[in-house]
Amino acid sequence: MRKTILMLVLTIFGCFMAFGCGTKDTPSEVLSSAEEVSTIESEASDAVMAERLSKEATTNTIPENLKKKALEMPYADYQNLPAWHGTTLMNKVEYGWGPDGKLTDYSKELVEELAEVGFNFIRVTQDTRIYFLEKTGDPGEYFNGNSDMVNIQELKKVDDLIGWCIEKGIHVCLDVHSTPGGYMIGGDEEASRELLFTEGSEEEQIFIDYWEFMAMRYADIPNNALSFNLYNEPPRFATDEQYTTLMKKALDVIRKTTPDRLIFVDMLQYGREPVYGLVGENVVQTFHSYDPYEFTHNLVDNADYEAGRGERESAIRQVVTYPLPAVALGIRDGYVVTGDFPAGTELTIRFGEGGAGAETILLADGKQLFTQKFDKDMLLENGFVLDEYDNFAYYLDSNPGVSMLEYKVALENPAKELRFELKNEHWLDINELIISTDTFKTKIVGQWIEKIGDDIPPTRAHVDENGIVTLTNGAAKYNIGKESLSEMFQKYVDFREKTGTQVMLQEFGDCVYTEINGAQTYYDDMLSICEEDGFSWCQFGFDGGDFSLVPVNESYKRRGATYEKLSSGREICAELRNVLQKHMK
Q1: Bridge partners, 324 (sequence order)
Q2: 67-296+486-582 domain in CATH 3.60.40.10?
Q3: In sequence order, which residues have a C-beta less than 8 Å from that of residue 65 and are 6 or more positions away?
Q4: Each residue of 172-186: pLDDT tens digit?
Q5: How far is CA 118 from CA 70, 111, 113, 169, in A?
Q6: Residue from 257, 226, 267 nearest 123 by CA
Q7: CB atoms inside a 10 Å sphere around CB 422
């Protein structure tokens, strides 16, 4: 129907342009306008195909010899995954992404870099807006739900990428990261994704349309070389039933033309909880792991990302230690941090919860430096709502927009010991303590570990000259490291064994603002667990942004890391490359 209507409109318009409605003496202004429209139409016809399901939109340009070569790559289906070790390409993660807000194209040199490092799998992020055009405008402009215009030139770039990857034996997984009503990057992610999960919405249809024509376009590319990941990290509000309903609609249109296509589906809750509604649907479920989050996302999740850029680019970056120290939240039997703290050291103290009326005192080498009482009036003035027990917590649903209470204190004299004490019988938690000197800045994060609860021994921590935190008492055995990560992964092992559903780790990594020794240990722990549990894996991400191995500029280099040139001339973090290659067996 869409095709018939559009062809009729184009025919009428063509007649109008050719015959001028029977008028020979057309004013020059009208001719000029008509010529301009004709030029725009001509350029558009070269770049896009007006029909969503036209032959050009649904036929790839990958050479036949490469399609045959793809069959030589390791076989893959929903029951059998090769030993994939991959990374993520962010070139098309979202319209407007990249330097100066412009899309970054794929290149043969990029694929050669991937092969040089040793990757045999790439997760290729996609924004569906890039592949659709309205009848006026460019990809990514405000999109009203019309998917009749397909951007053929962008599709050909995907063809090229797949072809180059086949030549190098690299599997390509196309992954929708953003789509109208389901944006992933920026803004209020939860609120911006509700329309996608609204049945019958235009946004839902765009998502389904994308997968329909992509399935048709690549129907002759075997699973050895190509797979689909339907949607990245479903939001917290999406229920199993709601998410399953949307994914099944995408599965149905894909399987009309490619019933055996290898399809990945991210787990619920941002890739953390198995989707039981999709068990038996012949899909592989994927999970994402960024624990411990305070370490992997150090300096990334600022309330205002751009406002925090100066801190990320400062000479002394904030350090969060890995394995993450199991620092007690509560000020029980004192909260003690030792180290060499010179005069002028600045302390940022963030209190997040406690009993109304609690009062604390901070001592520096036994001398009072700071004291604060959390009486009801002060708490209410700061937007806190007390519960039935007169406790306060910034994260309560009844406290929208309320953050932790923050205080800054400077040391007038050098000190070896910082000690917080309670002055009464109430309770109080220090959620974060940031210690800044002229040589280091470290963030100590209070931890709640489910299996331990309030039983973590009182805080006894030491900060060395590099800002690395170690615990000096029994709390150290609860640090969040390989053992605790392995326990988290066990959930996915159990799900696989219980349901027969294959599982893959499709996102993990840490930002470039982490300390390099901790990053190496984190990578080695994650990949060792994958080997032990039999999970293929995909790191996030290769080049570009905050989690990259290959920096686009000096701001994205890890402090203290060694950078070595690839054959292309670009540089890669050698320490993390070496850990990755160690686990590429």
Answers
A1: 480
A2: no
A3: none
A4: 999 999 888 887 654
A5: 18, 11, 9, 10
A6: 226
A7: 20
